[in-house]
């Protein structure tokens, strides 16, 4: 757990007590565009998800952790997804739920902790992130953490206002071969 604790926050496993937070976040239509969500989630479905959240990353190919401040308030989520142990890579995504908690360094610290965990504990060679081209805050966050833009998927995400380009960022762990 030590490598999942920073100065302002720590990353922890999802708990049953996080149901209301998860329900609110997953049903926030303002982030559906970036999460790929198409319909609301019920508390029943999310409770089942929480009941299975303990499953191993090698089995389910993903890991979702709660971003908690030092008072143990869940302020966001960070995910590893498309975990590929053979090629030693995974996708990574982060969301800070409330606008008032953004731009305080929480996303940067959570991303740094998760990258460190992925590279040291999971022995990954690379992480990648997909970010909509108009999400300047996320682009800045990932570039600040050493991710490099490696490409653009044109007209990749369909929104209510038309198609948007999605940028792909990558961070290579140069400490491993």
Could you explain the architecture of this structure?
There is one protein chain. With 177 residues, the protein is an alpha+beta fold. It has a single domain (2-127), classed as Gcn5-related N-acetyltransferase (GNAT) (Aminopeptidase, 3-Layer(aba) Sandwich), CATH 3.40.630. The protein is 28% helix and 34% strand. The protein has a 7-stranded mixed sheet. A hairpin with a 4-residue loop joins strand 3 and strand 4 (89-96). The two termini are 25 Å apart. The mean pLDDT is 90.
Rg over CA atoms, rounded to whole Å, is 16 Å
Structural class: alpha+beta
Largest sheet: 7 strands, mixed
Strand order of the largest sheet: 1-2-3-4-5-7-6
CATH-derived architecture: 3-Layer(aba) Sandwich
Element order, helices and strands? EHHHHEEEHEHEE
Please identify the top-level CATH class.
Answer: Alpha Beta
What is the percent of helical residues? 25-40%
CATH topology: Aminopeptidase
Count of DSSP-assigned helices = 6
Distance between the termini: 25 Å
What number of domains?
1
Keywords: Transferase
Protein name: GNAT family N-acetyltransferase
GO molecular function: acyltransferase activity, transferring groups other than amino-acyl groups
Organism: Flagellimonas hymeniacidonis
